[in-house]
Description:
By secondary structure, the chain is an alpha+beta fold. The protein has a single domain (15-114), classed as Arc Repressor Mutant, subunit A. It has 4 helices and 7 strands. It has helices spanning 2-12, 47-58, 66-74, 83-96, and strands spanning 21-24, 27-30, 35-38, 41-43, 63-64, 106-109, 112-115. It has a 4-stranded antiparallel sheet with strand order 1-2-3-4, with helices on one face. It has a 3-stranded antiparallel sheet with strand order 5-7-6. Helix 2 (47-58) packs across helix 4 (83-96) and helix 3 (66-74) crosses helix 4 (83-96). InterPro entries: OmpR/PhoB-type_DNA-bd (IPR001867), Sig_transdc_resp-reg_C-effctor (IPR016032), WalR-like (IPR039420), WH-like_DNA-bd_sf (IPR036388). This is Transcriptional regulatory protein, C-terminal domain protein. It holds the Pfam family Trans_reg_C. Keywords: DNA-binding, Phosphoprotein, Two-component regulatory system.
Amino acid sequence: MKAHLARYERLIGSSEAKNDIIEIRGIRIDKTARRVWVNDEEKQFTTKEFDLLTFLAENPNHVFTKEELFREIWDMESVGDIATVTVHIKKIREKIEMNTNKPQYIETIVGGWVQI
Length: 116
């Protein structure tokens, strides 16, 4: 039986495989499964919201302009309005912040946003 289990794990990968997870003060982002929990409650994110949140979480304390975020998340080939970045940040805040008027995670500063 053990031989069959070992062979099965070799074929599909070990059941011990770890997902790539980012944790920031009550937020857990599972990059592998593309899932997000805020204070142990799973929240639903669109693809771009997830990509934007993950990008900011991977680059803490760095200020990004709307143009930089648009280029990074939507890529240079995208045709669109950079105002979409503002809309996505607002939607992300509604899902992760306790009080959107006093954000703890994504702070707006002159010239862009910073993940703190």
